[in-house]
Amino acid sequence: MNGTTARRLTGLLAVAAFTAVGCTSVQTSDAQGGRDTTTTPPPTETVTVTASDAAKPDGGSAKTTTRATPPRTTTHHPTTTTAHPPTGAAIVSFTVVQKPSCPINGTPEAPFNKPGVPVIIAWKITGAPGAAIAVDNPTLYGAYGKDYPASGQLELSFPCSGTTGQTTHKYTVWPKDVKTVSKTLTVSAQNNP
């Protein structure tokens, strides 16, 4: 094999190897469905046939045949996850389990003392993972807390005024993450000045 034939053979083998290894990927976007389409040309299949020096009168040469298979197209469908508030959330019940009373503070003329009684509220919610509660803020979602169970009860102190008349407090419950559904209880107790 002479030097020119050897160089030609080396060049052809280098081109064949580069072609077989080289691969590009083109990504396009489907205008209708928002899908990503990736077209990847397959690696070029290269077949090299070499004749021996003795079989060819000119000293032999290498022949390289290249065939390409059709490109493969892969379509990716995007997945979208959106957090939506629970639908169908409802307040089944919201009640006062224990009525409050204001404390009685004794005087020298009437030395009788009695502590106040706290209020206990109970709720049951369906269609939501929990409840949010507000005290004296019926328009402020979860002002007293946003991570209560869907069914439960809560004991709260009932601060009273030192004047004659009644003290009133408002208790509001919402299904967790649903600000459009709520129920408010108005609870009053007689002051004992």
Could you walk me through the main structural features you see in this protein, from its secondary elements to its overall organization?
Strand 11 and strand 12 form a beta hairpin. Residues 12-57, 59-66 and 73-83 have low confidence and may be disordered. The chain folds into 2 domains: 3-76, no CATH class; 90-190, no CATH class. It has one helix at 3-21; strands at residues 26-29, 36-40, 45-50, 62-67, 72-76, 90-98, 119-126, 131-135, 145-148, 151-156, 166-175, 183-190. With 193 residues, the protein is mainly β. The protein is elongated and about 60 Å long. It is built from 1 helix and 12 strands, in the order H-E-E-E-E-E-E-E-E-E-E-E-E.
Helix content: under 10%
What percent of residues are in strands?
A: 35-45%
Order of helices and strands: HEEEEEEEEEEEE
Number of strands: 12
The backbone outline, from C-alpha atoms, is: elongated
Distance between the termini: 120 Å
Please state the structural category: mainly beta
| Largest sheet descriptor | 4 strands, antiparallel
Strand order of the largest sheet: 9-8-11-12
